[in-house]
Amino acid sequence: MPLSLVFTSAPQGLTPGRSGFCTVARHREIPERLVTLLEGLGTPNGNSSTAVFTFRRLDAAGQSWYILSRFTAGGLDYTQRDNRLAQHLIFTEEEAAALPPPADVASRWHGWIEKWDGEPRWLDPIKLQLKAGRPLIPCSYWRKLTGTGAKAAWLIAGESASNISLINAKDTDELLQLFAEASALLGRASWSANFTTQASITGAEGFAWCGGETSGRHCIDLSSANHEPAPEGERARQAALGVAVPTAMRAPQQLSTENSPAITPVLLNGWLIGTIALAICAVSVAFYFVYKPNKTESKQVATVPVKKEPSPEEMAAAADILRANKALQELQDVMSREDYVTAARQWIEIAQISPAFTARHRDQFVPRIQACIATSAAKTLEDKLNQTGVAENPEAVEALRAEAAENLRIAKEIGAPKDAALARLTEVGARAKLLTQLDIRDTLLVPGKWVTGSAGPKIPSTAEFDFGPKAGAKISAFLKEGLTGGPGTSQSISIRLCTYRFIAQRDNSTRLHRAKLEQGASSVSVTEETPSAGQPSVSLSVGSRANTVTLKFTGQPPAGFTENNQGVELVNVAGRKLCVVLLASPEALEPIRFSLGALYTDASNQETTLAPWIEPVFTRLSLIDGRNGLYPAGHAFPDRTASLVISKNVLDTDLIRLNTSSESTRRTEINERRKLFDAGDFLAAGGTWTIRCVDSRGNSILQIGEFR
Known about the structure:
With 708 residues, this protein is α+β, with helices and mostly antiparallel strands. 33% of the residues lie in helices and 24% in strands.
């Protein structure tokens, strides 16, 4: 027994608190994910003069569901506006296998409703009762309309449905009759032929057969179809006569009619010879009068060849075709979900199984995959990159980098055009690759100077960096996080010294070592226990008396050491990481560089800010006594309102000032930026954007990011 769901505009839905267009009736057994998918189909038909039928397959709750839908319009809803209604019949794969084709069910079921004016309710079990039907094979409706039932085979390609549109049908009932007879030619696979009776309303994507004219697929004009030559082949003969002619003789026990649901199998008895002779005569006569398009030619009598056992090669080829056909059906479902990367991967696999078979279906699938794969893959990857916490998770970022590289490979293999969409996919992949090279953690930038000293040839030389009480207070709070015990206790944490040349760099030249953290009454000290060979030992002290990092060398510090920026990385008891960057040469610190794809403009308020995927790099990095700000090229300092969000007005003000103050050689550049601004392209109008650390007076101290 099928399940059902009714979706329309009502003052109260089945779900408490919902009104307007919502589900008003359904079976409890429908999975919630499937309910969401069906509600997402909406009520596309606004034409009150006809109903629109669709048939499709949806995957939800770990299984496939076959959905026969009817969309109608008419009457007014509770707000006195035009109302619409969608009614869905839902079948399992097992139920579908025992039923006539879906188009036949659509035209013969009594239970379709025109409008809903009752209270929302849970539905009782449906007993599917169909009106009396007629045999679908031979295809008598096609014969009546086009001159021969053989033309129903126009809708079949090999073992599956072709991408075909039927135009100039008299009405919806006529289309359902034609679809029903054509799908019956597929036998047990009749429920693989998805369709819509009005593509102009529902769209053609995801449907093999469409009623109405569509772009990108072959159209059959039913008003002139009787003048077109009939197709040839076994399917056409089956459509015209009800059996395939010529056909191999079957075993004497039973005559199989699995592809013809209207014919009941008949056991052969002792009259075998006479029955076969009469059948041959009947088939020959029927073939002449019904199927033969040129009746002026001489009579030909069909012969029945002796059955030949298929060779192993023929059996293998048939198995390949069956596998490829099943894969094509799955491919149609994947494409209906707009998962074009999976679709491309499946197509490549299908082509490897049976190149000749897939060559016949190439035009049905490949152009659409080629056109959509890059856009779809880039959007999916971008959404994943922008999820909270992903950029700070090295394993997640590495997985996205690998996914991006694989998606790009598949897009190129399937033949995606080298256009803006492919460039965007490449750029999104580059973002993921860049993030794998960064170490995003809390970072404290502390300007200052190294002071070196030596107490003699037998005493190691030292280098000391004083980072002041404000930085000391922040480092002290970090070190005390998760500590147990009080003054006089000690615990083990991790520490390492690393060079710091690039913002958020990942330096693997040194590794974390154990260090002893000791608590005093008003201070905390950290001492490295086992430094690497050739590296200085590191100690750190923060508190009321001193806030310093001290390095001890076995000899003199390496040349240029005190002019370089060094990072001291700490991992506290709670497992959190902090990098204290000792800026001896701020001008030597190189900013991290991105494309403009790392910024975006919010269309609702016209503010420009960081894209979510890169935002943690700069929100987790801070300068002592400073703030981070995003600025367009040529911005004037000092600026006490540092912010990572720039309004349209700020950019406009900068462009006005630049235009009046710039020398004539730069006016052309400023005018081009003004044109971009007036066109609404604020990212490009900003020129080369930067992120700068600005001190309390608004002066730019350090450039840490660049976007161009």
